[in-house]
Amino acid sequence: MADKYDVIVIGAGPGGYVAAIRAAQMGLKTACVEKWIGKEGKVVHGGTCLNVGCIPSKALLEASHKFVEARDDFSDIGIEASDVKMDVKKMMARKDKIVKNLTGGISGLFKANGVTALEGTGKVLSSKKVEVSNGDDKTTYEAENIIIASGSVPVEIPPTPLTEGLIVDSTGALEFQEVPKRLGVIGAGVIGLELGSVWSRLGSQVTVLEAMDDFLPMVDQAVAKETQKLLKKQGLDILMGARVTGSETNGDEVTVKYTDSKGEQEAVFDKLIVCVGRRPYTKGVLDDDAGIKLDERGFIFVDDHCRTSVPGVYAIGDCVRGQMLAHKASEEGMMVADIIAGHKAEMNYDAIPCVIYTAPEVAWVGMNEQEAKAAGIKVKSGSFPFAASGRAMANNATEGLAKIIADEETDRILGVHIVGQHAGELIAQGVIAMEFGSSAEDLALTCYAHPTMSEAVHEAALAVEGHAIHMANRKKRK
């Protein structure tokens, strides 16, 4: 038997590495198991988020957005920049460098905090033991507590089996070395819209096929409608109610068959990205005798404090219920580490922000208006367009709006939804407000710096009672 630890974490993604560092900071002897092999053939930390998800996709989104701004928008503000070009290979190299810096940084944080990095595949055995396999070598460790943070993987669908370099998932879409002329994207969710935006900006003719009839149903209807309009204006052809039924590859092309309200359809692409969601990754992570229960969808069953069915074994992040978000996993990791260390810790699942990093960005927290009404809550709302914002005008970024939904009786904020420049940063105001149980009036009475994009949130709060200053109010309130 090898060393015994107070905590062993399986997975070094944004949930696992944060949980491991937090546990070590609490004075617990901690180890973290990771099997991810990076491009240089060595184990790297950071999981999907840092290696093939959040970070590399944002590097490409930012680069492609700057390219479009320079090419199309600089002249609006008096900057003449002719013959602007994008070096795709250089863009990709920069993305890889950022990933390498961040994953290497986690390894440094492990050393600084005293976390033992175990390389290999971790498996939870019975009696709170963890087997770590690295090639033919297998070592079993004992732990007082185990945190499973094994993450998720992209969902594949039978009509479009992955074909190297032609039909790819989100990981493959981050590795294109040239701009495809015709690009198909299956799924108009967060990942599909972000990746479609990257390649559309760089010159691809992008068609997004979405089986659902409603665009971004988790977002407030007013914000979703505005977002769809803006993305269409940018060149994304988003087809709703388009259910993919099959595909055929022919040389360097792929023909996709789908059905919509008009019947059976076909479309030909040079590349096809499949972005229909993610599923929990638990393959090989749980021994049959471990006693850990899964729910009907394959997620590890946990309670509100991420406890599994086995005492002393916890699970966090994408492999458990809830939104598949890096920051949700990180917060769960800290909560669990605190609980193990003997502290009282809670997590407010009603105040987790979501962001789509298109341009403009889309961000939201809490309920949308249609959800609140469906729950029988009487609501009032206020919205404010960035077109009326002085800072938005100065930034040449007047697209979008901010909207606040509040309880009609208590004025408590139920949700905040924003589409606009820096929406991912602005939404933090809504998160903090909801975390402290704020009313719309609390935000309305807050002094905001002028001129800033965040004033749109202030005006939306004022608009809840019909008191927006820089917009004609439809209805006056007392």
Automatic annotation (TrEMBL):
The Gene Ontology CC terms held by the record are:
cytoplasm
Q: What class of enzyme is it?
A: oxidoreductase
Q: Which family does it belong to?
A: Belongs to the class-I pyridine nucleotide-disulfide oxidoreductase family.
Q: Per UniProt, where does NAD(+) bind?
A: G187, A188, G189, V190, I191, G192, L193, E194, E210, G277
Cross-referenced Pfam families: Pyr_redox_2, Pyr_redox_dim
Classification from the root reads: Bacteria, Pseudomonadati, Pseudomonadota, Gammaproteobacteria, Oceanospirillales
Miscellaneous notes: The active site is a redox-active disulfide bond.
* Cofactor binding summary note: Binds 1 FAD per subunit.
The protein's annotated catalytic reaction(s) are:
N(6)-[(R)-dihydrolipoyl]-L-lysyl-[protein] + NAD(+) = N(6)-[(R)-lipoyl]-L-lysyl-[protein] + NADH + H(+)
The EC number of this protein is 1.8.1.4
The protein's location, in the record's own words, is: Cytoplasm
Q: GO MF terms on file?
A: dihydrolipoyl dehydrogenase (NADH) activity; flavin adenine dinucleotide binding
Q: Which UniProt keywords apply?
A: Cytoplasm, Disulfide bond, FAD, Flavoprotein, NAD, Nucleotide-binding, Oxidoreductase, Redox-active center
Cystine bridges: C49-C54
- Protein name, per record: Dihydrolipoyl dehydrogenase
Task: Tell me which domain of life the UniProt entry assigns to the organism this sequence originates from.
Answer: Bacteria
Q: Where does this protein come from, organism-wise?
A: Pistricoccus aurantiacus
Q: What positions does the entry give for FAD binding?
A: K58, G122, D318, M324, L325, A326, H327
Q: Where is the active site?
A: H450 (proton acceptor)
Span of domain FAD/NAD(P)-binding: 5-333
Query: Which part of the chain is the Pyridine nucleotide-disulphide oxidoreductase dimerisation domain?
Result: 352-461
In which broad location class does this protein mainly occur, judging by the first location in its UniProt entry? Answer: cytoplasm
Cofactor entry: FAD
Q: Name one GO biological process term.
A: 2-oxoglutarate metabolic process
Spell out the InterPro entries in the cross-references.
Class-I_Pyr_Nuc-Dis_Oxidored, FAD/NAD-bd_sf, FAD/NAD-binding_dom, FAD/NAD-linked_Rdtase_dimer_sf, Lipoamide_DH, Pyr_nuc-diS_OxRdtase, Pyr_nucl-diS_OxRdtase_dimer, Pyr_OxRdtase_I_AS
